[in-house]
Amino acid sequence: xxxxxxxxxxxxxxxxxxxxxxxxxxxxxxxxxxxxxxxxxxxxxxxxxxxxxxxxxxxxxxxxxxxxxxxxxxxxxxxxxxxxxxxxxxxxxxxxxxxxxxxxxxxxxxxxxxxxxxxxxxxxxxxxxxxxxxxxxxxxxxxxxxxxxxxxxxxxxxxxxxxxxxxxxxxxxxxxxxxxxxxxxxxxxxxxxxxxxxxxxxxxxxxxxxxxxxxxxxxxxxxxxxxxxxxxxxxxxxxxxxxxxxxxxxxxxxxxxxxxxxxxxxxxxxxxxxxxxxxxxxxxxxxxxxxxxxxxxxxxxxxxxxxxxxxxxxxxxxxxxxxxxxxxxxxxxxxxxxxxxxxxxxxxxxxxxxxxxxxxxxxxxxxxxxxxxxxxxxxxxxxxxxxxxxxxxxxxxxxxxxxxxxxxxxxxxxxxxxxxxxxxxxxxxxxxxxxxxxxxxxxxxxxxxxxxxxxxxxxxxxxxxxxxxxxxxxxxxxxxxxxxxxxxxxxxxxxxxxxxxxxxxxxxxxxxxxxxxxxxxxxxxxxxxxxxxxxxxxxxxxxxxx
Length: 546
Fold this sequence. Notes:
single chain; 546 residues; alpha/beta; Rossmann fold; six-stranded mixed β-sheet; globular
């Protein structure tokens, strides 16, 4: 017996395709010590998740392990039969998946899903299983009342706690966590990670933590391995990585996003000197309210998601709307873009009341002035149409240019967002591009009709950390070059600080605080804003666990 919880030696994985093979993981080796938190970092496509699937033997075809060893307790898992491998899963090694909603069975209660693991692997009777379920839920701070709930009845953070409880059910010595906080708000994310660290200290299990966010791991990991294009480019202790690392790619990941506290570190996106913010707002929101009808067979409930919100946006300004999921940010975006109608209140554009409570059809002129960039670059573009088609539609609808001029405009806009040559990218379909490239196309589409206001609704949340910075820099550049007004919606206070002139903080549908970006970071007034700043700042883990 050794002090190694896991040893991966010369692991290679290939995708066997009709036109040949493609290497996904290229001869990587590393060891994880017992009780260690080992981080595996890289962007989408780097091979992180492929490594995980290989070591627990769940690789989907056409992926094939072509070489290597995965050793647990002196046994090479890759040499075992499928039935023998099953004995290792859950008992020796378990996994917390990226999306708790997808990882949980939607038609089974929380307690039934935990019992399922217990009954299969430990042959517990009903009473023993009930006691164990209660013990596990208590361990992850989920009340026993939630045991009877279905996954959809729980918040994202609560669902992730349940998935962690299932992973701990058989007290395995090692747990793999594959992007366990990706879909969570920053405060909830920090709470979940704090709970993981506490459980690890209590139960002494080993963690292999997979993420694309190196800054996140620097808070709590012991060692970190960095992957790029299927290769391991660097592996070292957190302390040495924090000092800058050796590889250029490591340095890129470390500097990908700024902190929400302390010196800015980066000053790539300063306030433009050539823009004089005038006193007359380009957009004004007055007493804005939005109520949705809840569902119910015998009674109709009402859910108020935006509550008497007031704010102004000046020409050429970047204003960030910040808050957790459910704070009302995206609803305000949809109200301002006229995708939905408010329950009450006014929206003034260039001093004119848009009379949104009366109009059912949005005039083309309004669409020309106000455009939106959506959160999901994969869903916002139709996969059956080319980039040229997507960008030409608003131009044709607005009847702005002839066919020849439209093509020239499309190529120009694509190049302005970093897709060059524009003529080449215009011919591509969405599936032929990365997430970052798709989001650039979405920005170019919004620019095509030369709007005055762009509303960017979480435009970076589904992108890798280094790609996020590139998208933010595009918005900053376009603001200066085109005198655009931008409303930037995000749950990430650090990104808001980096890009915006002013920050507006929303909580449960109410605007609770607004100020100059730097001033709000330095001197937050509300406790909620203080929590947001803390959650996005270095040292957040110690502040939660002390």
